[in-house]
Amino acid sequence: MKAPAIAPCLGVKDTGASVGFYEKLGFTAQPAGDDPNDDIRLLLFGGEFALMVYRDAHLRDWLPVLKDSAPGAFGMFYLAVDDFDAYVAKIRPLVNAVKESDHDGRRLFYFTDPDGYIIGVVQKQEW
């Protein structure tokens, strides 16, 4: 698997709960390293790297500059899917939808994860 140019690593309250949430949405999880005491997980979507999740306490220990940061983010992440309609229909009952929109001819579906991160679903496209 090729690593992306930028790899998001989200601080989460409970790594197991976050992994469980994302697995319900079609992601797969795997350990990010060999240390059994480290709970960082890689999340794949469609077999490709999507993001990492890491317990907030461990992330604060790793980067003390984050010690006062709350989980969640000001901003959003986008998830590009092969079939927008089918994927949104599948996850709609599993998520807290916060907005649906059409913008520049593209349909968008936004939801929050258990830690307040906003994910926007979009149809996969070439740039």
User: What oligomeric state is this?
Assistant: single chain
In CATH, the architecture is Roll
Q: State the helix count.
A: 3
Low confidence ranges: none
The whole-angstrom Rg is: 15 Å
CATH topology: 2,3-Dihydroxybiphenyl 1,2-Dioxygenase, domain 1
Largest sheet: 4 strands, mixed
Looking at the structure, what is the overall shape?
A: globular
End-to-end Cα distance, whole Å, is: 21 Å
CATH superfamily: 2,3-Dihydroxybiphenyl 1,2-Dioxygenase, domain 1
How many β strands by DSSP?
A: 8
Task: Output the helix-strand order.
Answer: EHEEEHEHEEE
From the helix content, strand content and strand pairing, which structural class follows? alpha/beta
Strand order of the largest sheet: 1-4-3-2
The overall pLDDT, averaged over residues, is 88
Note the beta-strand portion. 35-45%
How helical, in percent, are the residues? 10-25%
Protein name: Catechol 2,3-dioxygenase-like lactoylglutathione lyase family enzyme
Domain VOC: 3-124
GO molecular function: dioxygenase activity; lyase activity
Keywords: Dioxygenase, Lyase, Oxidoreductase
